[in-house]
Amino acid sequence: MRVVIAKKLLSTVGGSEAQARALARALAKRHHDVTLVGLRPAWRRPGIPLDVYAAPPGPVELRHEGIRYLFLPVRGGRVGAALDGILPTSLVAGADLEHAVAGAHVVHSIAREWAGPLERAARAAGAAFVETPLVHPGQRFSGTSAVDIARYRRDDAVIALTKWESEWYASRRVRHAHVTGVGPIIDWLPEVPMDPATVLFVGRKERYKGYHALRDAAKIVWRSRPEARFVAIGQDAWTARFERRFKDERWVDRGIVSEAEKAEAYARATIFAMPSVHETFGHTYLEAWYAWRPVIAGDIPALREVVRDGIDGLVVAQEPHAIARAILTLLGDTLRARRMGESGRFRLQEKWTWDLVAERTERVYEAARERAATR
Questions:
Q1: What is the dihedral of CA 96, 98, 100, 106, to 10 degrees?
Q2: What is the pLDDT of residue 16?
Q3: Residue 250 contacts residue 215 (beta carbons within 8 Å)
């Protein structure tokens, strides 16, 4: 099957960016002809090959690990690329997208960013159009507008990551939503010892992900466990420049790290905590389970479906005292914490390997092609 997966930013930073790359690799291993399409960035981003920046103006095509990568320029040159890289805009030229999807059986848009132009290009090419919207109800620009919902109803298939998300679409008369889940963006762990009391956070350091609440929880934890250490990995929020830095040697703020450094952080961690209030799935919980670690997740429907409270981890409100109690519970009962990590690892292997996700995605594509053929 010839598949085009489009994600505006194809860097290695960010959940949906990593999801697009990992899905493409998994589909390519299953002998599909896969093209990844993204924005030609205005500035250097982690994971974007240097050849993209060195190439003359226009689209840039590369091949890596059996996957064709196509980086498209947008209207407005570098200024347009900068704006399109940070705003929910669609500045790519329709002709470039039509060329990118020519000959495809399926065009798959991840995260809505170019969904409108991609839908038109897919229809012009006679391809099935599939969308993974990644809705975040309650957030701005989160995919819940009337325009978005009307497009979901037109799509040949909508991919949801959880049953809860699928039911959200169904309640809005989107009749062709399918659940695939995602896999972990980690496949290797170094042989290093686990720390006795380290809490790890991996993700954008945004308030909604629980980064700020975790900082406040750390102060409560230190009252009874002063030796506890907190490590936060990820890109700063744009508001970070206006915030006071947390000055305590037991709180370690790291920025964007390599995949090897991230794997080592998971291996050394005692607990993983990301008490988010807006997620469609949260693949970092899977990464923690890959390392056999218990997790602390936010108390929202999508995460309650992924993390079984009291079995694979703890589900808590994004409130410092609740987060601190969960951390102290797991630090104080190492046997329970170990069993939760083991349960999560087995759950990951049974439900959310990339091979399983790719197999489910194949079935979605086949259903979408059948639907498109009836148009």
A1: 150
A2: 86
A3: no
- What fold, for 2-183+353-373? Rossmann fold (3.40.50)
Sorting pLDDT into bands at 50, 70 and 90, what band is 217?
A: very high
The CATH label, of 3.40.50.2000, 3.30.450.20, 3.90.79.10, 3.40.50.300, for the domain at 198-351 is 3.40.50.2000
Tens of pLDDT along 278-302? 999 999 999 999 999 999 999 999 9
> Confidence class of residue 65 from pLDDT cuts 50, 70 and 90?
confident
* Domains 2-183+353-373 and 198-351 are alike in CATH topology: yes
State yes or no: pLDDT of 44 exceeds 90.
no
Q: What percent of the chain has pLDDT over 70?
A: 100
